[in-house]
Amino acid sequence: MKRLNICVDIDGTITDPYCYLEYFNNYFDKKIKPTDFSHHRLDIVYEVTRDEMTKFYMEEGRRMHLEATVQPDARDILWEMYKTHNMYFVTARYKEMESTTLEWIQLNQLPPARLYSLGSHYKVDAAKELCCDVFLEDNPENAQQLAENGINVLLVDTNYNKELSMNKVTRVHSWNEIKGLVDMMAGQ
Q1: Taken in order 134, 135, 141, 146, is the CA torsion positive or negative?
Q2: pTM recorded for the entire structure
Q3: 11 an active-site residue?
């Protein structure tokens, strides 16, 4: 069995992709549903400026991230992968949210994988630095950039990434499917 270097995004990948809807809907006084998410950029979905989205994040980000729900089977499968592979959490969250993210990881009893808070959606450099064999992601732009740079991506299926279809990107519908593909890549 090959020991893989696995990079794992957090929001929309480990967390339920729509668990933040209530916070955004309350703050922006909207009634957006998961089926309304045809784009990964929330400022576009909510028809607000980036500055308004940043203001929201500064006011609600900590509480929102601490209360984020973990997808079914993710915890157990992450622990299994952590025990047999090199695993890293690579997130676009700002560095200022790092202590909140670490607290959330501990609260949700996730493995203590090393955390990379990039403050940017560009993840290619981090993936290359970590010699990433496979990246678990939900954001279609991130997935495309990673794939274009030769990195295998397992793309968690969401309403906002349906359009992406390309080499090196494999769409997955559950954490059990992720585990099966990672096991296959490792030669198990």
Answers
A1: negative
A2: 0.95
A3: yes
